[in-house]
Amino acid sequence: MNPFDALNRSHAWGPGSFDMAEPLIQAAGIRPGMRVLEVGGGSGRIAVTLAKHWQVDVVTLEPWTNGIEIQTLAEAEGVGNRVLPLRIKAQALPMPDNSFDAVISIGSFEMIGDERPQALQELIRVARPGASIGIAEPMCQPVMPDDLVALDEEHKLKFRECFRTLDWNRELFATHGLPPVQSYHFAEAYQWWLAYGKQMEGRISAGEQEFIRRDQGRWISLGLVVGRKAD
Fold first, then answer.
1. May I ask the CATH architecture of the domain 3-143+163-202+220-228?
2. Model's pTM, two decimal places?
3. Residue 56: what are its φ and ψ, rounded to 5°?
4. What is the pLDDT of residues 39-60, one digit of tens each?
C-alpha cells in the first residue's frame, strides 16, 4: 500500500508531488535506518510520510518558510525526532561531505533555476559514496508550441525559463559524474497536471490554469531522474 495515496492532495505544492513520491523513493533505494536529505520541504507531508513509513531520518530544506509547520506536523505524526526542517538553500549547504545515504527532490529542483548545476554539485558532495540522488518534477518536451509560447509570455508564467527536458536533466547529472540509473516521463503526467489545476483553483493564476488546460499534454510533463554517486 502506498501511504502517499492517503494524503490530501490540496497539501501538495506542485503537480503530481504525492504521486511521484513513492516511485522516486523506490528508485533511490531508500530503506529503514537511512539518513535522507530532501530538497524542497513544501508542506512537510513528504518528509513526514517518508520518516513515518520508511523509518528514516529526514533533513528537509525549505528556504521559503521557518519550518514550524513542518515540525508541528512531524510531532503530531509521532516522528518529531526524525524530521529536521532547515531554512537553507541547496546551493550552499553547511553539512560536511558524505552526510546522507540518499538525496531526493520532488517538484523543487527546477525552482533553483540557473543555479541547478551548483546545487547538484552540493548534493553530490554531501551524499555518501554509493548514495542515490534523484529528482521528480515538472519537465517538458523539447519544443513549446507557438500558442503556448504566447500564453507563457502574456501571463508572465516563465515556464520556459524554469522547466527543462528529461534529456537536459539526464545530461546535467551525467556531466557532474552522476550517471543516471533511472530516467523516464510519467505516463500519467498530464492527468496529474489537470488534477493539480483543479485542486488549486483560486490559488494559482487564471493564466496558469488556462495554460494547463490548453496544453493537452503537448509540452508540460513530469519526469524522474536518479543517479548514483560513485563508491
1. 3-Layer(aba) Sandwich (3.40)
2. 0.96
3. -125, 165
4. 999 999 999 999 999 999 999 9
